[in-house]
UniProtKB/TrEMBL annotation:
PANTHER family: DNA RECOMBINASE-RELATED, DNA-INVERTASE FROM LAMBDOID PROPHAGE
Gene Ontology terms for molecular function: DNA binding; DNA strand exchange activity
Pfam families tied to this protein: Recombinase
Top-level division of the source organism's lineage: Bacteria
Recombinase domain: residues covered: 4-72
Protein name stated in the entry: Recombinase domain-containing protein
Length: 286
């Protein structure tokens, strides 16, 4: 759908259209209010002022009310028991479960937020009687590692911004751009084992976001505690496949291993360069 200027409607515009009573002819005041030097607050419905029939309606009242009922139904939050019951029905219907199908095919409102309701995906699978051959705990461990890594990244961002740097990031904190110059990809790894039976971290080169550096947080299983970081150029990683951060795959990889992110702060530091117009005695004839 496009507006009068030929631009596609945004999600915000569509949501406003579905919620705004002006389209059914009513005018509302005092839904939000603001006192001096304070933020806007949403007032309770008892304080709203409504003028019914202020405009000629362009949407039927019954259609508008049905839309509000459906939006309110999807806004409701399901508890853990409702989520497990819905997952059980999905398992009976499809015969298998994945995190993607759970987010897309559950028959309850707010299915995209069910991961926040379930403390553990592994426990949820067990409770509904699903025992797949693959490692279910890997998903839970990876989510735990990402949350921990996000806290470290937020701390670094706060330090950089306090030092006067401009830091751009995406919602998932998976990409950073510092001072519109240094691009960093952020990821976590749970490690793997090679023939030497020593755990190694792994990293993948991004195909959508070309970065200068890759920041890898290493959380070896089963402890899922941060062991170290790897801050390395993206150019040392293989294309299209995961790169094992071991000496045989990346020579000198231990030189990129750090225990904290102070090195990143140092890399971004600005150092003034003083230029003198006077030549030294040694260079005046060169």
């Amino acid at each position: 759908m496009y507006n009068a200027q030929g631009r596609p409607w945004s999600n915000t515009t569509i949501h406003e259209l579905l919620r705004n009573e002006k389209y059914m002819g009513n005018m509302l005041w005092n839904r939000r209010s603001q006192k001096l030097h304070t933020s806007y607050v949403r007032n309770p419905e008892t304080r709203w002022v409504r003028a019914v029939g202020a405009f000629e309606p362009i949407v039927d009242t019954a259609v508008f009310d049905a839309t509000q009922a459906r939006l309110d139904r999807y806004k409701s939050k399901a508890d853990e028991h409702q989520v497990l019951a819905s997952i059980s029905r999905l398992l009976q219907k499809t015969g298998r479960l994945t995190l993607r199908t759970i987010k897309q095919q559950l028959d309850i409102p707010g299915r995209t937020r069910v991961r926040r309701v379930l403390p553990s995906l592994e426990d949820a699978y067990r409770q509904v009687g699903y025992f797949p051959a693959f490692d279910i705990a890997y998903v839970d461990h990876r989510i735990t590692a990402k949350k921990t890594m996000a806290q470290y990244v937020l701390d670094v961002i706060a330090q950089l911004e306090a030092s006067g740097h401009r830091v751009e990031r995406d919602d998932r904190l998976s990409t950073l751009c510092i001072d519109q110059e240094l691009r960093i990809k952020v990821c976590v790894t749970l490690g793997c084992k090679e023939n030497t039976f020593q755990p190694y971290a792994k990293a993948t080169k991004s195909t959508r976001f070309r970065a200068d550096l890759v920041l890898v947080g290493y959380f070896p299983r089963p402890q899922i505690r941060l062991e170290c970081f790897y801050l390395l150029p993206e150019s040392v990683l293989d294309d299209f496949v995961q790169t094992t951060l071991s000496p045989c795959h990346v020579p000198g990889v231990e030189g990129f291993r750090v225990n904290d992110l102070s090195l990143l702060i140092t890399l971004c530091a600005r150092v003034p360069i003083e230029v003198s117009d006077e030549l030294s005695h040694d260079n005046q004839y060169r």
